[in-house]
Amino acid sequence: MAGSGGLPQRGHMVVIYQEFKKCNMARGCLCCLKYMMFLFNLIFWLCGCGLLGVGIWLSVSQGNFATFSPSFPSLSAANLVIAVGTTVMVTGFLGCLGAIKESKCLLLSFFIVLLVILLAELILLILFFVYMDKVNENAKKDLTEGLLLYHNENNVGLKNAWNIIQAEMQCCGVTDYTDWYPVLGENTVPDRCCMENSQGCGRNATTPVWRTGCYEKVKMWFYDNKHVLGTVGMCILIMQILGMAFSMTLFQHIHRTGKKYDA
């Protein structure tokens, strides 16, 4: 009787042990997820801090990185880097602190910020492809109007930016080199448009200059590097989706159990 009574008891203990083992496995997986999310967002936050620092440095000390567009004077490389760095830093901070503290509020905020960024990216991408022709037309028009500010003392950064892109991309003007004629005079282009750059070479009608416009050159660069840009875009998309999935997994666990796991 004693032996037969002991068998159910041992079976019951085995079931309890198995359930305890499953619980520990789930706890370990969630704890691993918590620290993976923390480390990932810590790196994300540090990258955001670095971008913000570079953007501030460019804004303060480098006039070379100015805007090409007179319609959007704030749309400079420095301001774009600052905006991206700030967004990355805030998002990484929310994810990092939310994961380590297991805060439902911070995890939900992190999820919402990532969702808003993802939706904004998709909307902008769709609008860009839908209105591509109109975007190209308006961009060319705006850039051509911006050439009129080339010799303006308050737009030294714009002048430097045009000189840099024309020298690096081996192009001249927006559509072609004749875009500079209404600005600098007939048969006159910036010296950086010359195939062999020298002082005053742009005023010599016999000096060979780059014939292709910079707008087409930039479009060609994007086309030639579309695979790299697409890969980077997919990596960013995957990281955003994984961040949202991990944050919701941790959020749902805390909400369901009503308690945090000890580290």
TrEMBL record:
Primary site of residence: membrane
PROSITE patterns per UniProt: TM4_1
GO cellular component, one term: plasma membrane
Keyword Transmembrane helix attributed: yes
Membrane topology classification: Multi-pass membrane protein
Keyword Cytoplasm: no
Family affiliation: Belongs to the tetraspanin (TM4SF) family.
Subunit structure: Found in a complex with GP6.
Protein name per UniProt: Tetraspanin
Organism for this UniProt entry: Callithrix jacchus (White-tufted-ear marmoset)
